[in-house]
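Worked example

This section walks through a single chain of length 311. The input is the sequence exactly as stored; nothing has been trimmed or padded.
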Amino acid sequence: MKDQTFVGRWIVISGATFLVACGGSGGGDESSKVTLSYDTENYAEKGVEISSNTNLDGVFALYDDLNEGFDLVEDIRTILISQSGGVSGTTNCDAGGTATVKYAGEGWNDDEVWELTDCVVSTYDYGDVFLNGSYRYVDTLTGESDTSESWKGFESFNVTGELKRTGEPLRLKGRADWDQAYQWDNTTESGRVINTIDAFELRIGDRYVAILNAETRLEGTEFDAEYAMSGKLIGSAIGGYIQMSTPTPLAISDYENCPTAGVIRLSSDGAAEVRYGSSAGGTATAVAIWVDGQIVESYDDCSSVGFTPVY
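Given that input, the structure is written out below as tokens.
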């Protein structure tokens, strides 16, 4: 039943972000002053234009940066685990250097602490990656019965390195927490998954992304569920930040390719909303796009918009 959590789940880009312009516009966000280690350009304080006259390139590049970065994190983690064989101690990394791991979990519980020393791992998509720093993964079974179980855990990174193939420096720092509960019977599975993050940063060369004060919540059954999110997304590709939230949670059905209700809101320099189904108030069959209080697009289904929301 356990649903493994990875940092990649923090990619909260939805189709709404195609409204965000690729250029920064100055301004600032005083609501969340969090110390960031690698935001040397102060993107976290630069508002981004949100308008109906927008350039898509920056948003697509931000989405690509997030995907590429978290794919790389997943590749590195998978390689390290396969090398250690689940045994505490120091092991040679496959292309040089060492990784020291300590396993402290018992039973179903997992607690891994990794220390990387000039560790070079060979990835399929990114070639050899040079790493120094620490990684920790904790997952604890907090409750269990014949028909239910609950888990809490986190993973944290403080890693520096380099993509050897391109010479790009790599910087990865932050922590993601989860709180999961599952129930099942003979006919239905249900659950609740809450993911939270205070700050998470990723820099590859001159590309930078960060997520601040974020929470995603998915709750319901295997057939119908509600999804809600909030958080601040920062990126070099857009030259600043956007604040994302769901003032009305998204209603997700296993039988529909589009939420049947819900609102995704983006704000920075201007504001936009993507309103789904019944939350569109009759202005669209499936999806209505509003910018600064005015409707700018409406669609009969999600496929005609060219995106599917990321849950």
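What to look for: DSSP finds two helices and 16 strands in the chain.
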